[in-house]
């Protein structure tokens, strides 16, 4: 294997022609690189009418170069996960056309008629089905890859198949360590430094974060997406697509649910200071909290139904157990969401929802609010027993 | 690979001569099969002075035959685990001389000067260091195979290396399912049937058992022995050796600690009805409870020291976190111990500690006592915060 970048557009075209039947043989194809430039290469290949996306991974992080190696195995994992997700939640992921280990690349459906959820949030686009779609996606993918559905041997082989150490290590550090100490990778706006230092000295918080880290590292419960932030979701008013599962591994269900709910709350924090009329921002904040309720309700209902319909695991399918299990998943969801809220505020990777607030003091108000919310969610997650209880905390927290 | 049984004694001798240097070339060797006949073949090969044990696994369960296939991979796992244990707890395991995948067999130190702990318990032998030895063995093996010690990549590769589905499935069924329903594999003494039926109808208990099962299936925390009952431990007054790790896999630390503590309590239950003067039986019961305290204290102290000395994992090594973690491990230990107590009383595999009570009514009294204790331990494990609290429950439970 050479693991080298496609040499030129012609190589990308050749890959698409060899591995998909999306274009006629004599159709002229146009190639455009559309990636964010961070980790991988993403190409859009356009024909007369249709188009295809090609994603290529190299054995290092693109933006840094060969100094930060990253296992090429992640592209195999991403391709397999997209196929698994498509089996159970076909409406919510792009179609995978072909994966080639030789080129460490795959071709998939172009979902260019969708927009990135992060920017839809920032621009306050109405997304009436978002929470429901996400809840269904989560229920289908997490149920069907867990012991609730898979036989013991398939499940355990899958755990081994999706072991993804280098990728998990990134999350272990960025979520559960950096923001809780004075780490050089952190990016802290000066007016927030004092609040950040408060977290570094907060022993109770650091213990709870480490408990969540232990779960992240040791709870091989379901095949989780592993990086389900708003930038991994593409939306139209009537459609939701989840992409980029290269961080997938067998982990706790609550990590995925918490990651996306954390991103909803981060946009909520940003709306305090983003441009636009106050009533419009207030309304969008109310919409965001409603979608947290909708996401969890859809997940809870669909997961419960799936167990009743499809689980022949006699102990885990006991209805009382399922409800206890889901109640535990919810509490851990709140905790993981809190870690996402905090790490996006003072850690390495910030988000435009808050960073695009131009006024540094106004931005700092959103950041401090996010830190306070995240702390509360992590430390008190066992007593935050429902989305309504979580929303009540967000509503009561002074801005 | 043929995976066939050693044809005759000469084949066993040839194996030992080829793979170990324990005997001189012209020394006459004598072979004796000493296994219990259940799953594998165990040979003692004796020379003029020394001796060696050979263990051979076949791709099925010996006592049943080819009708119950069992992956041959278990002998590779057992050999590797014995070597790993020997690295960290050399005093507490037999020396491994050689493993050969070709013959699916290994040769190890003969610990024939030790006796099986189950029979030492039944005969009430004094074992003043037992609890301490077990606690040290558990601390060394569990710490050094967990995220507290291993780097992220080594740990995750080890999880994959020790995936052991067929073996784990046996435990998943026998511990966490059979005893809680009217299963054909159960073995229930008629006077205990009513008490067993009580468990089958006990919804709260079944939910807690399923939570423990979820942990057993999903918590890949450390390389656990996986079958640490009294029959896997060999003892002298001054020495303790743990054998038979063929059920090893990456699981919860509390499963190992709970399994052995469950066996101590099972012998406690048996002592009510075993032969011998009451004061002798009372004294031995008091000794047993003391060894539970000693085992946990030694584990707790050594684990805490190991983290302080050797862990460079910055979050998990926070002293406050370690104490919280160990408190959680203790509660789960109580729960797993409860499942061991119950499954040995009404499940498939009984133990001589209770079964050797001849009088069926007297035996049933011990069995009912064990069931009541096991239930209490499982359901209330979160409020049983120390070995002393556990012992107080055993002492207060009417016989």
Automatic annotation (TrEMBL), chains A, B:
It holds the Pfam family APH. The keyword Kinase applies. The keyword Kinase applies. One of its GO terms (molecular function) is S-methyl-5-thioribose kinase activity. Keywords: ATP-binding, Kinase, Nucleotide-binding, Transferase. Residues 31-261 form the Aminoglycoside phosphotransferase domain. Its EC number is 2.7.1.100. InterPro entries: Aminoglycoside_PTrfase, Kinase-like_dom_sf, Methylthioribose_kinase. Belongs to the methylthioribose kinase family. Homodimer. This is S-methyl-5-thioribose kinase. It comes from Neptunomonas phycophila.
């Amino acid at each position: 294997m050479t693991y080298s970048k496609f040499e030129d557009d012609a190589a990308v075209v050749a890959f698409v022609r060899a591995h998909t039947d999306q274009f006629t043989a004599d159709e002229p194809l146009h190639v455009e690189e559309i990636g964010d430039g961070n980790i991988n290469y993403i190409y859009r290949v356009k024909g007369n009418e249709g188009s295809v996306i090609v994603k290529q991974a190299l054995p290092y992080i693109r933006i840094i170069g060969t100094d930060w190696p990253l296992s090429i195995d992640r592209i195999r994992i991403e391709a397999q996960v997209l196929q698994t997700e498509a089996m159970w939640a076909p409406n919510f992921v792009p179609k995978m056309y072909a994966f080639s280990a030789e080129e460490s690349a795959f071709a998939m459906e172009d979902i260019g008629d969708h927009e990135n959820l992060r920017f839809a949030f920032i621009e306050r686009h109405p997304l009436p089905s978002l929470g429901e779609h996400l809840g269904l996606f989560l229920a289908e993918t997490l149920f069907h890859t867990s012991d609730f559905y898979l036989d013991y041997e398939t499940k355990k082989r899958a755990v081994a198949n999706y072991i993804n150490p280098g990728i998990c290590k990134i999350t272990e550090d960025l979520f559960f360590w950096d923001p809780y100490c004075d780490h050089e990778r952190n990016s802290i706006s000066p007016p927030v430094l004092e609040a950040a230092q408060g977290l570094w000295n907060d022993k109770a918080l650091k213990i709870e974060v480490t408990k969540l880290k232990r779960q992240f590292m040791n709870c091989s419960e379901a095949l989780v997406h592993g990086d389900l932030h708003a930038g991994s979701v593409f939306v139209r008013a009537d459609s939701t697509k989840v992409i980029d599962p290269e961080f997938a591994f067998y982990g706790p269900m609550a990590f995925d649910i918490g990651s996306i709910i954390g991103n909803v709350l981060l946009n909520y924090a940003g709306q305090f200071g983003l441009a636009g009329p106050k009533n419009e921002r207030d309304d969008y904040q109310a919409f965001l909290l409603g979608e947290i309720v909708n996401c969890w309700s859809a997940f809870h209902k669909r997961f419960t139904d799936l167990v009743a319909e499809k689980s022949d695991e006699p102990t885990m399918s006991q209805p009382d157990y399922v409800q206890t299990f889901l109640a535990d998943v919810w509490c851990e969801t709140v905790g993981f969401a809190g870690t996402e809220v905090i790490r996006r505020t003072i850690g390495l990777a910030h988000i435009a929802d808050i960073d695009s607030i131009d006024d540094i003091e106004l931005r700092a108000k959103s950041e401090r609010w996010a830190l306070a919310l995240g702390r509360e969610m992590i430390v008190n997650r066992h007593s935050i027993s429902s989305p309504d209880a979580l929303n009540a905390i967000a509503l009561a927290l002074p801005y």
